[in-house]
Amino acid sequence: MVGWYRRFIPRFASIAKPMYNLLEGDKAFRWSHECEIAFSTLKEMLISNTVLSHPHPDRTYVLTTDASMVGIGAELAQQTPEGIRPVAYFSKTLSKSERKYSVYDKEFLAIVMAVRHFRHHLIGTKFCLRTDHRPLQFLANTKDPWSKRARWIMELEEYSFTVEYITSRENVVADALSRLEYEKTLNFDESEKIGQNNNPPNPIAAFRLPEAATLVASIRDDWSMEESMKAQQRDPLLMEISDIVGRDQVGPLVDMKNQSMVVKKGTGKWTAIPSLGLGIPVTLIGESVFARCLSSLKDETVTASKSLKGPSTTKYEGDKKEMLEHIRQALYASKIISYAQGFMLLREAAKEYNWTLNYGSIALMWRGGCIIRSVFLGNIKEAFDKNPGLTNLLLDDFFKDAIHRSQASWRKVCAMAVTLGIPTPCFSTALAFYDGYRSGSLPANLIQAQRDYFGAHTYELLSKPGQFIHTNWTGHGGSVSSSTYTA
């Protein structure tokens, strides 16, 4: 890399001379203090404004990518009066499953990951994509793409770019970056023992955060290889982020360790509050907010963990692969419920505030870069295109069939979580919503009777619809009823 950029480095020959001396054939290879200074100086120059250029909005971006057996690399550059100058670099070590990809898929993955990384530079602009893998020149003309290739092509469709083939000799920087393999250096404090008191160990606390995140990333790798419902279950943004942070090598996850407190910022709360005002049960977002609130009571939960007992059995003894498949199905079903609730809220808000919303277009817009991005937002668009008056996504054939297929696994996961004492608020509330929504008659009559007893709020009889009455439940007092209080 340094040799490639030497034209931008003043006095390059003088700085690099100690290292070049090592290449003389009649001398023994001896790494001296002068060599270390030269190496460090050149390395610093690669990431300083000596080599790097500030991005200019009127210049065309050039993204060059490459893949090796161990990693992927990319260089983002722009054409300047001095020639093409780099703006930023990117490299990533391949996961265990990614190393099994074909050469074509590794090179394709390098493009996708680089575009994701530099999205804030590339979105909305036309750029040149350079690769030394000739078949990728015909990326846009791929016939019958399957599984991950189809998803990658769909992801790249929102960008405007041309593909240019370059030789390996011209692809020096990305090639070098793709060969940087990072070893795992996560060190955990083993002195902190889990479950030192008489209570059985908490299965959640048994996973330190870095370990749990890495486990999630590895499971996602396994899921990515599955064939069933692959196109619908992949690619929500937060799961993709889990992949990235789960493979963090030496960064903030190491310092987080047992930190289980989540900072509350407000987007979930901003959604939950109007849902209560509009009377729409957006229960998954609500439970997510409450889970974060619970996590903020760190001192209390630490104290409680020392005295409050849970179930005697906290370890799952069954088939791990089978349970992971049940969890995948439960995740899929719960995601569908969350989207269904979200669109229920939008529809009710449209009625309340006289909005005109195109629900199919909203789904398509979210599919790009929103935090709630998911591939099956395309299926949501199809559902609303087919039936613009659709009251709930669960009534669409695609989502109804998907829920029916996943339902048995979903129930097994929630039951097992309760048995083992593992909180799964979103899985559980999603299932409770589904069972409530599919019930033609709910036990709300008791609630109405209670409200009429303590507040004379009246109730409606099935035999007399539209007529609200009050019962003097105790035989004392008058027959006063509240006709204006409707809370």
Number of extended strands = 7
General form: elongated
Distance between the termini: 69 Å
CATH class of the largest domain: Mainly Alpha
- In which range does the helix fraction lie? 40-55%
Query: Using only CA atoms, what is the Rg?
Result: 29 Å
Overall pLDDT score:
78
N to C succession of SSEs: HHEEEHHEHEHHHHHHHHHHHHHHEE
CATH architecture of the largest domain, by name, is: Orthogonal Bundle
Largest beta-sheet characterization: 5 strands, mixed
CATH topology of the largest domain: N-(1-d-carboxylethyl)-l-norvaline Dehydrogenase, domain 2
Q: Provide a count of the helices.
A: 19
Uncertain segments? 183-214, 224-235, 248-259
Could you explain the architecture of this structure?
- This protein is of the alpha/beta class and 487 residues long.
- It folds into four domains: 6-46, no CATH class; 61-178, Nucleotidyltransferase, domain 5 (2-Layer Sandwich), CATH 3.30.420; 260-437, N-(1-d-carboxylethyl)-l-norvaline Dehydrogenase, domain 2 (Orthogonal Bundle), CATH 1.10.1040.10; 443-487, 6-Phosphogluconate Dehydrogenase, domain 3 (Single alpha-helices involved in coiled-coils or other helix-helix interfaces).
- The chain is 48% helix and 10% strand.
- It contains 19 helices and seven strands.
- It has helices spanning 12-21, 33-46, 103-117, 119-122, 147-156, 172-178, 209-224, 230-233, 237-246, 252-256, 267-278, 283-295, 298-305, 320-353, 359-369, 377-386, 397-420, 425-437, 444-455; strands spanning 61-67, 71-80, 83-93, 126-131, 160-165, 459-461, 464-469.
- The strands form two sheets. A five-stranded mixed beta sheet has the order 3-2-1-4-5. It has a two-stranded antiparallel ribbon with strand order 6-7.
- A hairpin with a 2-residue loop joins β2 and β3.
- α3 (103-117) packs parallel to α5 and α14 (320-353) packs across α17.
- The longest helix has 34 residues, at 320-353.
- The chain is elongated, with a radius of gyration of 29 Å.
- The model is unreliable at 183-214, 224-235 and 248-259 (pLDDT under 50).
